[in-house]
Amino acid sequence: MRYIILIVISLTTLLHAEHPPPRGKATFPLSKTSFKLMAKDGFKTVDLKGQKFIVVSVREHGSDGRFYAVNEEGKVWKSGAVTSGAEKYRSPSGIFTIFQKKRFHMSTAYPDPSGVNNMDYMMKFTRFGHALHKGSVDWMSHGCIHIDPKDVVELFDWTDYRTKVVVTRHSYMPFALGDLRVKRVEIDKAAIFPSNIIEAIFSGE
Length: 205
What we know:
By secondary structure, this protein is of the alpha+beta class. The protein has helices spanning 2-16, 149-158, 173-192, 195-203, and strands spanning 27-29, 34-39, 42-47, 53-57, 66-70, 76-83, 94-97, 100-102, 122-124, 131-134, 145-147, 164-168. It has a nine-stranded mixed sheet. It starts with a helix and ends with a helix.
């Protein structure tokens, strides 16, 4: 019996041991929808035109520390701050697919001692457990991508099991800026004018 207990403890320790994070594949934005990706035989270009996807430019030097949600029409319709893995737990770069979503979730590797869920609105994209989820954008993570609580609900509702996640260590802002400027103007107009006045202006009344 004692040996069985020791074996169980050893297996549990191995399963929860800290492993070096996967390095992923170097990923470079080429345009709003295309990316250069490191492959075994060199670089290849992946174009996500016609698909909806999320670009995560990680919180590291030379990156944006933001996510960008791109719809099927190739428009960046939402962006917000993120934090990513600390140096010891760097988030892997590459192009992934969301394969699991959970509204309520507690990390099994790093459970909160208080018992409060610490990975709500979880959108998992690697078998190592990396996910987009609700979290503070004031500190770095164990490898996951923290989405600000004010942004995560809308993003969670928008994604599905075909949504791609592009994680890069390079800036995506130059490709997103045009859409974000248009969105900013629309928000400013809505804040200044009541909706009926805006409709009258654009209908020529």
